[in-house]
Amino acid sequence: RTPLHLACASGHADVVKYLVRKNCQLNLADSFERSPLMKAVQCQQEECVAILLEHGADPNLADADGNAALHLAVLSLNTTVAGLLLEHNANIDAQNQVTLAFGKAALSKRCPTRLCFSKWNYLFFQDGYTPLNLAVSRHLEEMVEFLQKKGADRRAQDQHER
C-alpha cells in the first residue's frame, strides 16, 4: 500500500489533500489491485472519495475480483458515495468477475477494515453482477431504488442470465 492508500483508509483528508497537491499517483493498486479511491469507498471516507474524484481518480478501475468502486459503495450501503462516483462517470452497469458476500459485521463501522476486507472474509460467487444486480441479490432496497433512479439498466443480467 502507498501512503495515499493508508490515508484514504484512515480518513485523513488533510493528508490526502497534501499528497494530491504533491502530484502523487492516484490510481496505483495495492496487493488486492485496489486503488486509493477503492480504499476510501470501502472505508466510507466520503471526504477522501470527493478529493480523489475531484483530482481525476479513475472510478472505473477494477480490483482483483473485478469490483469497481461502485460495487464497493453498494456493499457499503452508501448512496452518498455511490452518487459521487456516478457524478464522476462511474459505469453504473459495470459487471464484476466475483461478487462479495459480507456478514452484517463486515458492513458495520465497528468492524476493523483489515478484517472486513481481507481476502479471508470473502465468499466467492462467479456471477458477473452489475451494481444493481448486487444490490438486488443482497436485498438492499434503498440502494436498488437509488441505482434505478440514476439509470441503472434493469435488464442487465449476470452470467446466469438472471
Question: What can you tell me about this protein's structure?
Answer:
- With 162 residues, the chain is mostly helical.
- The protein has one domain (3-149): Serine Threonine Protein Phosphatase 5, Tetratricopeptide repeat, CATH 1.25.40.
- The chain is 45% helix and 2% strand.
- It has 10 helices and 2 strands, in the order ααααααβααβαα.
- The protein has helices at residues 3-10, 13-21, 36-42, 46-54, 69-75, 79-87, 104-107, 113-116, 131-137, 141-149; strands at 99-100, 124-125.
- Strands 1-2 form a two-stranded antiparallel ribbon.
- The longest helix is centred in the N-terminal third of the chain and has 9 residues, at 13-21.
- The chain is globular, with a radius of gyration of 15 Å.
Q: TL;DR of this structure?
A:
By secondary structure, this protein is mainly alpha-helical. The chain has helices at 3-10, 13-21, 36-42, 46-54, 69-75, 79-87, 104-107, 113-116, 131-137, 141-149; strands at 99-100, 124-125.
Strand tally:
2
Low-confidence stretches: 99-126
* CATH fold naming: Serine Threonine Protein Phosphatase 5, Tetratricopeptide repeat
Give the overall silhouette: globular
- Sketch the topology as an H/E string, one letter per element: HHHHHHEHHEHH
- Whole-number radius of gyration? 15 Å
Query: β content, as a range?
Result: under 5%
Mean pLDDT: 83
Main sheet overview: 2 strands, antiparallel
Helix fraction bin: 40-55%
Integer tally of domains: 1
**Helical stretch tally:** 10
What is the top-level CATH class? Mainly Alpha
> What's the arrangement of strands in the largest beta sheet?
1-2
Provide the CATH superfamily. Answer: Ankyrin repeat-containing domain
